[in-house]
Specification:
Layout (H helix, E strand, L loop, with lengths): L1 H14 L12 H23 E3 L1 H6 L3 H19 L4 H6 L8 H17 L2 H26 L20 H21 L5 H19 L2 H16 L6 H24 L7 H11 L9 H14 L12 H7 L20 H9 L1 H21 L2 H17 L6 H18 L6 E3 L10 H26 L1
Antiparallel strand pairs: 1-2
Helix pairs in contact: 1-2, 1-7, 2-6, 2-19, 4-16, 6-18, 7-8, 7-9, 8-9, 8-10, 8-17, 8-18, 9-12, 10-17, 13-14, 15-16, 16-17, 16-18, 17-18
Length: about 450
């Protein structure tokens, strides 16, 4: 019975990217994080009451290393929080960004708790549900793009569905694209063609609806890896790989040289024009490159524990240089548009080192399994990693990424049961007291106050 309840709670969490209903979910990501951390806190309390972790079995596992690196990364992020000059702001962040260490820690714990509670078949069920959620979000984005239901939906050239930003929508759909394609390759039944349709559908949304160049780069890197290092190499696959690569490269070069797309319809010309700016190299986004230069100057001030969660803006303001390219037009950044630089500035060099150790050790152990599913997850992570080097992240992107991390832990650590089921002493039920305090004081109350503020504004 408890397992079914856990699954129900995970379904709620994975449905949250769809939530965007004023006045409750406004700002959208902030309302989602309120519900997310409330539900996750309930899962954690039930978990601590009903189970304990069999650390002895986990330590014996051959893939203990990525989990150890991940845990050390969490430790250093916490130390960075304690060293923050503004602990309160670091804890809760800005509602418009839905940041703060409480939310970030919740994403990290999602990876761990999903690994411990869920089995591979549970993950497959939940990930299929995520594909359905992604399909609905894509449908909303299409309606916004072509101005269907204009009285209800906000629309524009680059639409964002329920995420509030086209970059965030593309980074949420990017892992789902590779997940659907992996299921298509692995599946033998007719349902595999549904996964193929979803792959093409997500590709269309990312490239032609969100027009996100970082996600497009992620697609190229991910599929290049998927095809080059596919575990079952056949002649047909090699020939197909060569043809696909030649078609992509030649099409890109041809369009860039001839620019024949300038006479096409706006819905096709706009996305292609945006993708063609990738040929400009570093000239395409000079403001971000200048921000990265400012970040490295700021890093030298606080290299070990960083400026603290959510304090990237402080580091940027302190070392702001208006003489750098495009900085006079972009005098304010509270994100680096680069996931690694964000970690470096907010949490310090040790956090970045252990994050990279965790990430590449995870890829290493997935590679050792030498099966299609693990290979597909590697391509997924590399695609997301590439895109995140030029993007911002928020609730929906963190959610799907760390849930897939939990899935990867599950695949690597095999199907052993790392939990000892038990009815804990009555004392452990006292955990409900801090949970209720957290739920009502830091979630339900601010959620209701924000709702009242939104109603008053309207």
């Amino acid at each position: 019975m408890i397992k079914k309840f856990y699954l129900f709670l995970f379904f709620i969490i994975l449905a949250l990217p769809l939530a965007n209903l004023p006045p409750w979910f406004s700002p959208p990501a902030w309302g989602k994080t309120i519900v997310f951390r409330s539900v996750l806190a309930l899962i954690l309390v039930l978990f601590l009451i009903k189970s304990k972790v069999n650390f002895r079995e986990i330590k014996k596992s051959k893939a203990f290393l990525p989990l150890a690196f991940f845990s050390i990364f969490i430790l250093f992020t916490f130390l960075s929080l304690l060293a923050s000059p503004n602990v309160s702001y670091s804890l809760w962040g800005d509602p418009l960004r839905a940041g703060g260490y409480v939310n970030y820690l919740s994403y990290l714990l999602l990876a761990l708790i999903s690994f411990l509670i869920l089995k591979e078949k549970d993950f497959k069920l939940l990930l299929n549900f995520s594909l359905f959620v992604g399909f609905l979000m894509g449908l909303i984005a299409i309606c916004q793009k072509f101005e269907f239901f204009g009285q209800i939906l906000v629309f524009g050239r680059r639409t964002s569905a329920t995420t509030g930003n086209p970059i965030l929508l593309s980074l949420f759909l990017l892992p789902l694209l590779f997940l659907a394609f992996t299921f298509f390759i692995k599946e033998k039944r007719k349902i595999r063609y549904l996964y193929l349709f979803l792959s093409l559908y997500f590709f269309y949304i990312i490239v032609f609806i969100t027009e996100t160049r970082a996600a497009f780069l992620g697609i190229l890197v991910g599929f290049l890896f998927f095809l080059l290092f596919f575990p079952k190499k056949t002649k047909k696959l090699k020939i197909g790989l060569i043809i696909i690569l030649l078609l992509i490269i030649s099409s890109f070069l041809y369009l860039n040289q001839t620019r024949i797309y300038e006479g096409w319809s706006p819905s096709i010309r706009g996305p292609i024009e945006r993708m063609m700016t990738l040929t400009e190299g570093s000239q395409a986004e000079q403001s971000r490159l200048s921000t990265w230069r400012i970040s490295f100057r700021a890093f030298q001030d606080k290299p070990f524990l960083g400026y603290g969660p959510e304090n990237f803006g402080d580091a940027f303001n302190k070392h702001y240089d208006p003489t750098l390219p495009r900085m006079q037009r972009s005098p304010w950044f509270d994100r680096a548009h680069n996931s690694l630089i964000n970690i470096l500035i907010q949490f310090g060099i040790f956090s970045l080192i252990f994050y990279l150790l965790f990430f590449f050790s995870l890829l290493y152990y997935l590679r050792k399994k030498k099966d299609i599913l693990s290979h597909g997850l590697m391509a997924t992570f590399l695609a997301f990693f590439t895109a995140s080097l030029f993007s911002i992240e928020s609730f929906s992107t963190y959610l799907i990424f760390f849930f897939l991390v939990g899935y990867s832990f599950c695949l690597i650590f095999d199907e052993k049961d790392y939990l000892i089921k038990r009815e804990n002493p009555l004392l452990t039920y006292l955990l409900f007291l801090p949970f209720l305090f957290f739920l009502f004081g830091y979630n339900i109350s601010p959620f209701q106050q924000n709702t009242n503020i939104n109603i008053a504004k309207q």
